[in-house]
Each structure stands twice: as C-alpha cells, then as structure tokens.
Amino acid sequence: MSRIGKQPIPVPAGVKVDLKGQLITVTGSKGTLKREVIADIEVSIADNVIEVKNRVETTKVNAFRGLTRSLINNMVIGVVDGFKKVLVIEGVGYKANVSGSNLTLNVGYSNPVDFKLPKEVTATVDGNTKITLESIDKELLGLVASKIRQVRKPEPYKGKGIRYEDEHIVRKVGKAGAA
Fold first, then answer.
1. What distance in Å separates the CA atoms of residue 24 and residue 35, rounded to the nearest whole number?
2. Which residues of 13-22 are buried (b: 16+ CB within 10 A; e: fewer)?
3. Can you list the domains of the chain with their CATH numbers?
4. Which of 36, 40, 64, 148 has the fewest beta carbons closer than 10 A?
5. What is the SS3 string spanning 26-45?
6. Coil, helix or strand for 111?
7. Shortest CA distance to 95 belongs to which of 82, 118, 113?
C-alpha cells in the first residue's frame, strides 16, 4: 500500500477545489492550477479534505496513487504560498540580467545567452549572480531551473557555472605540479 497516497490533503481557507470528472482545478490567492488525473485513481473532496483512492488494486496503480496525492498537494501549496528556487552563478565575469520575461546570462561564452521564461515563472536577479525563480507550479519551476542550469553546468575543478543554492559541487584536484 502507498503510505503517501493514504494521507488526506487538508484544504486551507481561501482555496477552492473543483473536480469535474478526472480534471481537478485548484484556485487560491496566487492563481489557478489544473491537472488531469488518470482513470484508475479516484479523487474525492469532503469537509475541506481531499482523499485519493485506487479504483483498481495493483502495484502500478498504487504507485500512481502516491504520485497523484503528491501532485495535488503541491497544487494546493502552490496556490497558497508558491514555490521558489535559487540559482547561483559562480565565475569571474559571469552575471545575469532580467528584463520582463527574458533572462540574459553572461557565462563565459562569446555571446550572451538569452533565456525566455514562461509566463508562469518570474525571475529576479540579486547582485548579478543570484537568480531567484518563483512560480505556483512546482513541476514547471523545477524544469525551468534545470534548463537554466544546463546553460553552463558547474565544473568540478574551479566550481564555475550555474548551480542551485543548496547544491554542493565536489571539487577535483587539478594536475600535480612537476617537482
């Protein structure tokens, strides 16, 4: 049995949850999120609590039950508080700039890299090297942060590149000097 899937999801005050067939819509102070639930999973709403149940008892459906519960919980948390990811740029002359929905990265290439942000994600840059991404959709936020990190992954010798704020880069020892 899925232990995560068994847990009920409390719906805070100010959050409206609608269920039409297999489409669940969560509306809160920060916005609205929609998600289609697979047919083998049954979602029920009663007394400001969302419960996720299996229609068929198989191992695969049980795994989807836990996944569905986590995704719905992230939707509820997103429309109330939102999510935030912080990226740090390290390297001499490396910097970032944001204008509207366009993020410009100067990370050691001959030309700056322009990254178009989706409309659901907002970015702010602190001190040219700290990018803060915010969104109500956790899945989209993680995907955008990953794509920005892919522009210049941190390298293991000097640690130059774009990394997550809580990420630790394991450093390698460089060449041993001739004696």
1. 6
2. eebebeeeee
3. 3-80 (3.90.930.12), 83-164 (3.90.930.12)
4. 36
5. EECCCCEEEEECCCCEEEEE
6. coil
7. 113
CA atoms within 13 Å, Cβ hemisphere of 121: 25
Candidates 16, 68, 66, 11; CA nearest to 38 is: 68
Residue 32, beta-bridge partner list: 27
Distance separating alpha carbons of residues 31 and 28, to the nearest angstrom: 5
Whether 179 has a pLDDT exceeding 80, the answer reads: no
pLDDT tens digit sequence for 39-67: 999 999 999 999 999 999 888 999 999 99
pTM comes to 0.89
Question: What are the residue ranges of helices labelled H in the chain?
Answer: 3-6, 59-80, 138-151
Number of C-beta neighbours around residue 113 at 10 A: 15
Residue with tokens 């999510």: 83
User: Which residues, in sequence order, are bridge partners of residue 97?
Assistant: 104
